[in-house]
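Quick illustration for those who missed Monday's session on complexes.
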Amino acid sequence: MKPFLIIGNWKLNGNVLFVKNYINKIKNFLEKTKLNFCEISIAPAYTYLYLSNICLNNIQMNLTAQNVDINLYGSFTGEISIKMLKDIGIKYVIIGHSERRIFHKETNEYISKKFNIIKSNGLIPILCIGETELQKNMNQTKDICAEQIDIILKTQGIEAFDNTVIAYEPIWAIGSGKSANPIEVQNIHKFIRKYISQKNLKISKNLIIQYGGSINKNNMDIFIKQKDINGFLIGKASLTAENFISIVKKAEKIMSFL
Ligand code: PEP
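Prediction with phosphoenolpyruvate bound:
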C-alpha cells in the first residue's frame, strides 16, 4: 500500500523561531509514534529550508520546496535552482500551485519546464492542478485537469509521471474554508488515474494523487477513505504543529483500518 502523503505548505509564513519550535514538536511526536501508513513533509519558505533540514536530523519527515526555477545556474537574479534544492536534501517540489499560476502568471508550458528540470535531477514534482469556481459550474473540471496534465505528456511522455505526485486542488476550495465534496473529489481523482492509465497502467497505479483545499482535522475523514485519494496538500491547517500532528495522528488511525 502507498503511504498516505501529507504535506504542509507554509506559503509565505514562518520565521527562525517558528521553524525550530514546529520541528521540535514534530520530533517529540515522532519519538512516541512510528508512522506506518503516512509519509509527512513540510514546505517552509526557501529561506528556512536549510535550517529545517538541520533541525530535522533524520526524523521520519522530509522537506518540500514551494517552487523552483527552470534554470540550473547563471544570471537569473532572485531564483533558486533544483541543484540547490537537491544540495540541501529536499525531496519534493510544488509546482503549478494556483497562487503561482494567478499571481505570477505561470503558464502550463512554464510549469511543464519546471516539471522536466525536477524529474531530470531526481527530485519529485508535486504538480498542482484544478479548476476555478466558474469552470466547475460550467462542468469543465475534467477538461481543465486533462489540459494541465497533457502539456507534460506531450513534451515528456508518460514516463515522466513515474514516481510523481499530482495534487488536485480546486482553486475555489483553497484557503476558502470551503472544502470540496469528498465524493466529487474521488470522482475527479479516479478520472485523473484513468487518464494516466490509458497510457501506462503501472504508472497510474503508483501515482500519488493528493487533495488540497481547506482540509483540516474535522473534515478529513471521508476524504481519506476514498480509494483514489492518496494524500493531502494542506495550507492553513498546517500552520501550527499541533494541528498538523492532529491530522497525521488521525490519518494514521484511519489508514490502519483500511
Ligand atoms: C494550498 O494552498 O495548497 C491549500 C490547500 O491551502 P488550504 O489548505 O489553506 O486551503
